[in-house]
Amino acid sequence: MNGRITRLLILSLIFVSLIAAPFAFAQETAKKKKSKKAQKTEQTTETGSKKEKAKSKDSAAKKADDVEQKSVSRSKPAKSKKTDADGSNSTLSGLKGSSAEPKIDFKEVKFKKRVYNITQAGIDMGVETFEHSFKDGVYIASSEISLVPLRLIFRQKYAVGGKGFGLIRYDLDIDSMGSVRKITAYPEGEKVVFKHTPVGGTTETKLMGCEGQLILLDNNNANNYQYLVDSYSQERGGKQRFVCLVPQTAVTIEVEIERTGFVKGKLSGAPAEYIGYSGRETGQGIEIRVLTFSDGSLASVEFPQKKFRFAADGVEAELPPPARIDETREININGKHAFEKGVFIESGKDVKIFGKIITPVIGDPTYKMPAALIIAGSGPTDGDGNSKLLAGPVNNLKNVAEHLALNNVVTLRYDKRCVGYSSVVSDPSFTDYVDDARKALEFLSSAPGVDPKRVFVIGHSEGGLIALKLAAGKNKLRGLILMAAPFETFEKVLTDQAADRFNQAGAAAIEKEKFMAELSYALSTIKSGKQYKYAGYLKTPDSGMIFGALQANQRFIGEIMAQDPAKIAADVKLPSLVLNADMDIQMKPSYMDGFYNILSKNCPDRCEKLMVKGANHVFKPTSSPKDLSAYTDSSTKVVPQALKAVADFVNSK
């Protein structure tokens, strides 16, 4: 089974909210003093972690010395073996030729080890073990990152070097409950070669053009940040920008970092001082904080808004509070002035949902404008419509919000719980997501400048099902807009999607049969109220991730399977607009007529429908349903036909 069906399956299964709560097991893990899995994870760190913990009994000075001795000194790199007579490196081959694939002989390298503990919101997530060595101007490294609650293990092997520690070669194995896929990346002339090999599948190769040197900065690890810091010019100082390569998604990002000076803190309880760096990913504005020991070796990496942290044993620091995201800023949308404000919405005990409300600037400040709540689709999707499961930003919901602002409509879009800046909670249910949307609706209805009698709800994909629930309830709404929403039950949609993807990819019948049998068993087990447990026997790429996610989100899936969109729609008595796209491979275009026929019965002459031509599931233009790159093509926006239909509907009701 090839890599194409892997991507198609993952893309189609995003509808499931498979990873709606990426750390659903984390709370339960934290409640136990030490689970068997946690013990096994600690054992995999071997003697490196044990030695560091044993040394914590020594004096503070001795602790600092030990850490520095374990680190690779930037001022005095370890001596390496002599190069060959022709000047080449016996450990690295193929680096001289522009067309040769570089090879790394890890057997020739003596590694130094570091261990980082991984936490999110203070909850133990796993351990990263990092081994590296400096040889002939090149850093050669390997690491293993174990995320226990997600049952994921990332194994890296790579080499970086030259001026600025640019990428030479990168190899990654992603082990999801025994299902392993491989990724390789290396520069070749003015291009980067990416190779993806699903387990038991055929290697696929992709070329990406690049200019200048790329810094390795893959997802889900701390050790790559060592070389980002090493690339920073201490002499020049100030804010410096770097183009970084993310091999897992085969994209480049821009990261800006600045040395902020010395940071006071503690090392295993004793006073200590670190060197601090602050940074951000310029595309999505994700804040990054890095601490190093005095010799420059990495001490910790933290993403404050996401409450995610990698840190060596005993590292504590007095960091300033994270940058405020709940501030108001003036924005310009094609010449139209508006204000965008970050807001936190209370939704139950200890749960805050982060959203962005855009208020257009109009001539009459006393005029009350119509408003629309925008609800994202399934999976780990934020208020802009972006998901970390995809290779880049989608921004379809952001496009809708900005277009409505051009038409004097106030909008609120928000990050789902467990996503973006919203609260991370354990085992969220479908009811929780509906409650979050209801709280967001109440917030929007009472916002300054909003006419509470002209509030609409817009739901995309699975968000359409949540929008239906609000529209069928006792909420004060003026209208409903469904964008590629599911008309059939969750179970029907999911099984049809999976079967279609196998057929399109031309997979072997036996592979399809086994996968579909396991999917049927999983859904029927969860539906009956029993606990589903994946046995891990399938060879289909990413089966471990897919069925592991089903196993992790059984409460949510059990509830959503009980929802029948057609029956819910029968209770809606509001003006409605139904939008579908003719190139959608996730939601059948025929769903448009299904919804329209039901909604129009309760509200004759006030319901509309539109089939958007030449658009995919996220309503971006595409020439083929099979063109998955169109989802994350940053140069394209939602097609004008869809944007105009939404704005016209809101302003006409």
Number of spatially distinct domains: 3
Inertia-based shape: globular
Contiguous helical run count: 16
What is the overall pLDDT average? 81
Rg: 26 Å
Largest sheet: 16 strands, mixed
Secondary structure topology:
Elements: H1 3-13, H2 26-31, H3 36-44, H4 46-54, H5 60-70, E1 92-93, E2 103-104, E3 112-120, E4 123-135, E5 138-147, E6 152-161, E7 166-176, E8 179-188, E9 191-197, E10 204-209, E11 215-216, H6 224-230, E12 240-246, E13 251-267, E14 270-281, E15 286-292, E16 298-303, E17 308-312, E18 315-317, E19 328-333, E20 336-346, E21 352-360, E22 369-375, H7 396-406, E23 410-414, H8 430-445, E24 450-460, H9 462-472, E25 479-483, H10 490-505, H11 509-527, H12 543-552, H13 554-560, H14 565-569, E26 576-581, H15 591-602, E27 607-612, H16 640-652
Parallel strand pairs: 11-12, 22-23, 22-24, 24-25, 25-26, 26-27
Antiparallel strand pairs: 1-2, 3-4, 3-17, 4-5, 5-6, 6-7, 7-8, 8-9, 9-10, 12-13, 13-14, 13-18, 14-15, 15-16, 16-17, 19-20, 20-21, 21-23
Describe this structure in words.
- This protein is of the alpha+beta class.
- The chain folds into 3 domains: 37-81 and 91-317, no CATH class; 328-489 and 564-652, Alpha/Beta hydrolase fold, catalytic domain (Rossmann fold), CATH 3.40.50.1820; 491-560, no CATH class.
- It is 26% helix and 31% strand.
- It has 16 helices and 27 strands.
- The protein has a 16-stranded mixed β-sheet that branches.
- Helix 7 crosses helix 16 (640-652) and helix 10 (490-505) packs antiparallel against helix 11.
- Mean pLDDT is 81; it is low at 1-98.
